[in-house]
TrEMBL record:
<dbReference type="InterPro" id="IPR004183">
    <property type="entry name" value="Xdiol_dOase_suB"/>
</dbReference>
<keyword id="KW-0560">Oxidoreductase</keyword>
<protein>
    <submittedName>
        <fullName>Dioxygenase</fullName>
    </submittedName>
</protein>
<keyword id="KW-0479">Metal-binding</keyword>
<keyword id="KW-0862">Zinc</keyword>
<dbReference type="InterPro" id="IPR014436">
    <property type="entry name" value="Extradiol_dOase_DODA"/>
</dbReference>
<dbReference type="GO" id="GO:0051213">
    <property type="term" value="F:dioxygenase activity"/>
</dbReference>
<comment type="similarity">
    <text>Belongs to the DODA-type extradiol aromatic ring-opening dioxygenase family.</text>
</comment>
<feature type="domain" description="Extradiol ring-cleavage dioxygenase class III enzyme subunit B">
    <location>
        <begin position="8"/>
        <end position="244"/>
    </location>
</feature>
<keyword id="KW-0223">Dioxygenase</keyword>
<dbReference type="Pfam" id="PF02900">
    <property type="entry name" value="LigB"/>
</dbReference>
Length: 272
């Protein structure tokens, strides 16, 4: 792949939803279609690998999964028995893990490889619609504990060269993540915060970064993200394409009947 790939922040949905069509019906149909469309947006060509920054993995210092055959992590509770037998057998890529670690270390970040880390649902649930054959190598990158927005933008900046090497960078989280207010009581906060995100991401790049670094000042910010681990993957995706335009590639106003949720692409799609 000779084209620079865009980066993505995706709202990855709840738990193992792609494997629960019988229970959920068409609840996730719009999200699923947006994930499937990523293949078209990158020219219909498989990337060399996918680097996922998951909102479900945080460490004191950065870590990268480096197993050639990552196991599964069923990091959810209360779902049907079959969802604890799911396999997403995508290979890992020790080579990409090392390359990413080298880029991060060169930028001054403390980083280690984790040969035991498996795929959490922020990775396998989101990637299953994109690559259902699990035939693209996948590496996960943790968040850094403390959740400093600038640190995560800088992480994205350090990883930007991977885009020219055929690596698809995806930040996997949720644009609204307050599980205590995931019904009608979350409507106002999710819509107000989503409106702010949509506005900010249309700003010129330097203003956009500044605004996102101060996301806590946004309307209903802490209602939308009492704990920001599902927002920080956005900062990495932004940092890796910081000078490029953003586009909303998924949006619903009535997710689960009430919530506004969105996903974004940074950079231009790749012509087929």
């Amino acid at each position: 792949m000779n084209h620079r790939l865009p980066t993505y922040f995706v709202s990855h949905g709840g738990g193992p939803w792609p494997f629960m069509k019988e229970q959920y019906g068409d609840t996730y149909a719009v999200l699923e279609a947006s994930l499937v469309d990523i293949r078209r947006q990158i020219g219909g060509v498989k990337p060399a690998a996918v680097l996922v920054v998951s909102g479900h993995w945080e460490e004191q210092e950065l870590m990268l999964s480096s197993s050639s055959q990552p196991p599964m992590i069923y990091d959810y509770g209360g779902f049907p028995a079959h969802t604890y037998q799911i396999k997403y057998p995508a290979p890992g890529s020790p080579q990409l893990a090392q390359r990413a670690a080298d880029l991060l270390a060169a930028a001054g970040h403390e980083v280690s490889l984790d040969p035991q880390r498996g795929f959490d649902h922020g990775t396998f649930s989101m990637l299953y619609p994109v690559y259902p054959q699990a035939d693209v190598p996948v590496v996960q990158l943790s968040l850094k504990h403390g959740f400093d927005p600038l640190t995560h933008v800088k992480i994205g900046r350090a990883l930007a060269p991977l885009r020219d090497e055929g690596v698809l960078i995806i930040g996997s989280g949720l644009s609204y993540h307050n599980l205590r207010q995931f019904g009608p009581e979350g409507r106002l906060a999710s819509h107000q915060f989503d409106d702010w995100l949509q506005m900010v991401l249309k700003l010129p790049p330097s203003e956009r970064t500044t605004a996102l670094l101060h996301w806590g000042q946004a309307p209903y910010a802490r209602n939308a993200h009492p704990r920001e681990e599902h927002l920080l993957p956005l900062m990495v995706a932004l940092g890796a394409a910081e000078a490029e335009d953003a586009a909303c590639v998924y949006h619903e106003d009535e997710f689960f009947g009430h919530l506004a949720v969105s996903s974004f692409r940074f950079g231009e799609p790749v012509a087929a």
